[in-house]
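Dear colleague,

Following up on yesterday's call, I've attached the two folding results inline so they're easy to grep. Please treat them as preliminary; we haven't cross-checked anything against experimental data yet. The first protein's sequence and structure tokens come first.
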Amino acid sequence: MRFICDSTQLSEAMATVSKALASKSVMPVLEGVLARASGSGVSFCCTDLKMGIETVIPAQIAEEGEVVLQGRLFYEITRRLPEGNVEIAVTTEGENAGAVITAPGLRTRLFIMDAADFPALPVVENAQRIVLPGKSLRDLIRQTAFAASLDESRPILTGVLLEINAGRVRFVALDGYRLAMCDAPYDGEVQGMKAVIPASTLTRLAGIVGDSGNVALEIGPSHVGVDVDNTRLVSRLLEGEFIRYEQIIPQDYTTRAIVDQAAMADALDRAAMLARDGHSNLVRLRLADAKLYMTSNSESGDMYEEVPIQLEGKDLEIAFNARYLVDIFKNIGAGTVVMSFTTNVSPCILRPEASSNTYLVLPVRVYGA
């Protein structure tokens, strides 16, 4: 196999597929990248068996073929190549077996693995196809995936529920302490569909999807396939019944505060710096007199801050894990946010006034809160 391609395009391709590169796998071939030269392009593919990514770049093909290169090392090399053309020539037999990478002023040789041992990406069978604007998909991922659980003991909560009904697509993520639910318009033919996609898959997908153009998703019984320009991502879906999230969102409130997102986000960021040094990571809020009084303390010091709000209903004192509030206000979007409370031990509901998105966070029961 031998081909010439642009070093920048090669580096970008490797940055894309390496998101699916396995690390410390019991199958050494999964720590590699499959390079396949044919026709007028070269495809690169990485997979950890849960998710795989393949992308194609144009190239001048002198000799077709396929080989597996050491993934992490090849990626690091491509990042450091000079601008211009790069040639990759592969010899599979004899003492000189390996891949020689040649660019102006440099030559690198890498060991190779047999392409026959590299697993093919799964075919998404019996799939329903939906198309979403790239920006909408990125926003849905950014505004929900952070709330998915990291606890593998409840696998279904490590995913994000994709739900299509009544002219909208909805993403929902929750981890037992917080919930994020975001909607976007959808006018496609597919209706009444549900699938749970690993949050880690969506986070990596967000790094591939651009803000312009459309993205096609093929959703089957066990896998999802996503096509973005010359790149295809395939991932397993999570099995099991997702929590009936609508039943845990309170509809009533006794205290309601309207706050500026940017002001609240900045205040929380400052409070969280101190809270992180404490054992409980707490931030305390007191709502009274058209202000939100925020305090946090640890062995390193303490913090007090006032944030102006529009307040309706009863005064309230309540405490939260600082990280949960920081994550929400960082991803909720600009503008004003409505915070609704019932008691200091009941969930807080947050909704940006400019959208129908909904966030829920459980408070921490503490003395005096």
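Below is the second protein, in the same order (sequence, then structure):
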Amino acid sequence: MVTAARTTSQVLLHMGVAFGVMWAATGSLAFGGVAAVVEPLCNVALLPLHDRLWARIQKRLDARRHKLSPIPEANAFKPA
């Protein structure tokens, strides 16, 4: 329940900022409304691609780090 409320709050805040910036820049309520809808939709489409790209970068960095370490144990996961 809290997660849904938090997510809804974030979406509404994001839409409000998009509306406010576009309205301030153009003085148009119509452009502000379009920005408030289009910009979050673009984020929904692009954020998974962004996350996949960073996961790929992290995987490559981990592989490089593993190859460069002279001590194999230095790369092993050690639970606390």
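For the second protein, one point worth flagging: The CA atoms of residues 3 and 62 lie 31 Å apart.

Best wishes,
A.L.
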